[in-house]
Write a structure and sequence with these properties.
InterPro entries: WH-like_DNA-bd_sf, WH_DNA-bd_sf
Number of domains: 2
Strand order of the largest sheet: 1-3-2
Helix content: over 70%
Protein name: Winged helix DNA-binding domain-containing protein
CATH class of the largest domain: Mainly Alpha
Distance between the termini: 48 Å
Structural class: mainly alpha
Organism: Micromonospora mirobrigensis
Number of helices: 6
Strand content: 5-15%
């Protein structure tokens, strides 16, 4: 019987990259990038409309990306007709449809990958990973001061 590796940044990174590769394959079939899916999700979470500055700030924080790269993603979504607006951005009909396809793909992936993991194990893993994320975010915030 093999033992599980200790939780390290390497183990977290490998799990992230493997899971992200599965998601990226699905997103490519839908015709959008990961960053675009994050933007659509953030707009949908705000009820389908959000101020551009708030979306850029939320994406920058979520993706740990530079603002100019995030702004390009927003422009791509506008050009594709998935978002509309100026200072205030809103999901279009096609944007809502794409967002629903992404949500369905994520739900299917999650069901497959987490299928036989006991709920208590998932709860412990979730708490530990969230704690690591919060500590890393705090370090990044301290470094930015």
């Amino acid at each position: 019987m093999s033992t599980a590796p200790p939780l390290t940044g390497q183990v977290l990174g490998q799990a992230h990259h493997a899971t992200r590769a599965v998601l990226d394959r699905e997103l490519a079939a839908i015709g959008i990038s990961f960053a675009q899916s994050v933007a659509l999700n953030l707009v949908a979470a705000e009820g389908g409309a959000v101020r551009r500055a708030a979306l850029v700030a939320a994406m920058t924080a979520a993706l740990k990306a530079e603002e100019p790269l995030v702004a390009v993603t927003v422009e791509e979504l506008l050009a594709a007709g998935l978002l509309t607006g100026g200072p205030g951005l809103a999901l279009t009909g096609p944007g809502r449809a794409v967002h629903e396809r992404v949500r369905a793909a994520v739900a299917t992936i999650t069901t497959r990958l987490y299928a036989d993991i006991p709920a208590p194990d998932l709860a412990v893993a979730g708490r530990v990973v969230d704690l690591v994320r919060r500590r890393a975010d705090a370090e990044l915030a301290d470094a930015g001061r």
